[in-house]
Amino acid sequence: MRKKYLSALLFGALLFASAGTFTSCKDYDDDIKNLQGQIDANADAIKALQDLVNNGDYVTAVKKSDDGKGIVFTFSKSGDQTVTLDIENGQEGDVLSIDPTTGELLKNGEPTGIKPATDPEEVKAPVKAENGVWVFLNDKGEYESTNIPVSGVTAVQNENKQWVLTITDANGAQSTVVVPSAASVMSDLVLAGWIDGTAIGDDGKLSTSAINTTFGGTTDNKESLPIEYCYITAITKDYDGDKETTWSAQKDVVKGQVLTSLRGLGVQLVTRVAPADLDLSSMKFTLQDSEGNALPITLNPSENFDGTLTRAANSSINLIPLDITTNTYANEKAYTDLYGANDGNTLYSLVEESGARSNYGLAVKATKATVTQQYVSEVDGDAPISGTAGVNANPTFEVDLNKANKLTFDTKPEYVYDYYVEPVDKAVADLFGVQIDKKAGTFTVTKLSDQITRTTFELYVYALHIDGKIYRDKITIKPSNKIVASATLAAGEQVIKQSVQSDGKTIDKANHMRFDISLDAMFNAMSDADKAKWTSATLGANEPFDITKVVIGGSEETGKEETAAPSDYYDIELLDADGKVISNDDEYYKAKTMRVYAKYRSQISTTTPLLEVGKEYELTINFKHENTEGDTEILNTVKMTYTPVLPALSDYMQKHPSFWNDDQTVLMGVDNSINEKFTASGLTLDYAIKDGFKKLGSDKVADDMDITFKLADNKVDNKEFVEFDESASTQTVKYTAPTAKDNKNYGKEFTVKVDDVTYLSAYKYSAEELAAQTFKMKVLSPIVEGNVEVKDGTAVEVFASRNAKLNIADLIGYNYNKQSYNLYMDVDADDDGKKAYEVSASHPTADDYADKAIDFVKFESGDEQVFKITENMMPVDSSEGTPATWNGTTKSVDAGYVTLDTSNVSQNTETTIKVTVTDIWGYEKTVEVPLLIKMAE
């Protein structure tokens, strides 16, 4: 692609230097000295610019700062960056450019008398800085020195469309930074075709099949761009005998111009660019054929298409609106000659002013228009409430107060180039406070007239058609009684729950959530008069209201509209100041609060959710009034927004503090009610997860929630050491205790994950929310984690003798939670072990331990040289001790004991007795308890 240098000097570059640039050869020493301090200060600014460039940013505009002492670079991503030239003594930088008509050098817009030559190849710049001085291109195509030193700061756009910032010091040394512009970073430009104003739907979508192209591509429509035109020989009043006049309204039109159908049809070029985020809005384009001939069409600033492109996903789509030129032509032929053959076969490409060119993707065909009068069909997008567009039809349109209204024309709107309105009777229009903006093409009604005297007024519509004729039409305007006060009732996040009555159990409205929201925001947006009107029994809300639209995920412009009828998903009630439902719509004017019922799941399939969790819903609601004639009209319109959310999962997984340590690890097998919580089958421990939580899920109708779990990968020596029963009724962890005393599994943490959560039968939680509820457990014995101690004192005591009895009641066992247990059998259990009885006359001998975690307890000598354990007068290695028995004489329970055979000690002897408690899973707790063998007194 051949790079071109634009005809305007430096593309309108800003040259900031001494005030005398291009004027005289005065001594510049003082100026340079003044600049030196500023140059040093700008070093950081240059580095900042370079950093932005290195980060991929580029410039969309360069201009002189408002105070004339700096250069403002506008970056696409980083905004304005200013390099300041703080010149003393009022010497400010100048803006130099070349007059595109005369070729003369302009200084701050004023002629200088210098006319640099132009390069036929458009490669060499007319003026540039070289070796510390300004040089200009002479007639020989060579650069000639001006002998004027370059000092200060310059910003020049080179032939590659890059901005070159140069700082020159007093010695002529230069430092530069090259800053890319949007045009210089553009690597690809594709002209995909053209569309008209009907191509983009109300949903913001543009189908590729709606793009017209001349050839190739994947679009369905392969058509050249038709242009209907009229050469303006005169501007005349059709309604006044074709008397000639002038035109100035939204647009200014003069004789000799050519008006076309392009603007009225909303024709736009569809382009694609790389990089995808490149801003084309500051670039200037023309349509040119292969020989460089440009079409007489104005290309307005490009706009990035931020809607949805169907059948493609590309954020690099830009739309360029087409319009007429402001040029005038000597005659019609002078205009049509610019179309060349004008046969619809000549191909044109999009050309940026730097020379960047797209593919040849457009053909045009210009034909002279046969214009017919067009009539107003819509006012601010609304059709007439009575009458239709046509000759002398005078249709009536209803408009809201304080809203600027624009007009739309029927059948062939492209034939209307411009229009404005005037009141037929200004005195009547003044009753309604009518304001007309001729340049914007709008009118605004600011108040209602005395409704008894006047309910409507008339407007003349003056429409300039593209053939130069001004047609006058008449329309009637009826100001609406509707209260226009923009208000949004923002309910915020609302937790989805089944609505229930005050008892918390009875369903209120099946499959619907419910929330209340105050109408205060609506009333606060109204004037006092409008609020008084709304709450008036005569003029206020007294008819059934309706929901006209539901938008999901944003506003009407950005969200998607709910396809189902709003009445299928929503019921709304109004409540009075006492919070009571207003059942009679004649009394809706008393409303203070809105109660919303939103259907959250399908009534037919209750497992099907209907709400998109986390997305904002916007409802448009019309309140209505029935007047004395029985006619119903919209009183006002409000928006109501809410965002349905699921309850926090953590609220439904509240751990029981008794069973969890600070590290959030539940201790399995430590609950005192072991017969209720655990079952021992051989050496297997079963633990129901729900027993570790105060609240786990919910079985209430309002917030029914089922939570299921699963185990993570929990291995020791590459083997799983826990199992999990995943059936919903049990959700039980199973642990089999190894028989080896030193097994590696005891106390080993394992991870339990939330597998799934079903809320109200229809909603699921995200994987991230489930993962956040992962917790750890570990197998611990309540016995092993406890202790055995002397009940009173520091040692248990016996007197030295044969068959000395050690009362086991002098010892006490404690589980992990400091709950005590006896170290001897203390209950009489049934054979099946389901019921145990305290020792009494009817149950005289114990045969089991009251603490169900204990399998047995044994006692051993800590020093067999001092004493031995005996049973039936014979020494043994260990003894379980005797059980508790009933003493019929004392009518009390005798605790169990252990028999000792002591040696002949000569003094009180301190030793130990080993107590080993074995739990039902085979784990052992062994403690050596201090024992004092005393001499007989």
How would you characterize the overall build of this protein?
The chain is mainly β and 937 residues long. It has 6 domains: 9-185, no CATH class; 188-368, no CATH class; 376-479, Immunoglobulin-like, CATH 2.60.40; 488-642, no CATH class; 649-779, no CATH class; 787-934, no CATH class. The protein contains 11 helices and 76 strands. The strands form 23 sheets. Strands 19, 20, 33, 35, 38 and 39 form a 6-stranded mixed beta sheet that branches. The chain is elongated, with a radius of gyration of 47 Å. The N and C termini lie far apart (121 Å). This is DUF4988 domain-containing protein.
Task: Determine the strand fraction and express it as a percent band.
Answer: 35-45%
Cα separation of the termini:
121 Å
Helical proportion, percent range = under 10%
Profile the largest sheet: 6 strands, mixed
Helical segment count: 11
* Gyration radius over CA: 47 Å
Global shape: elongated
What's the average pLDDT? 82
Q: What's the structural domain tally? A: 6
Number of β-strand runs: 76
What structural category do the secondary elements indicate? mainly beta
Poorly predicted runs: 1-39, 87-95, 216-221, 310-314, 670-682
Keywords: Signal
Protein name: DUF4988 domain-containing protein
Signal peptide: 1-19
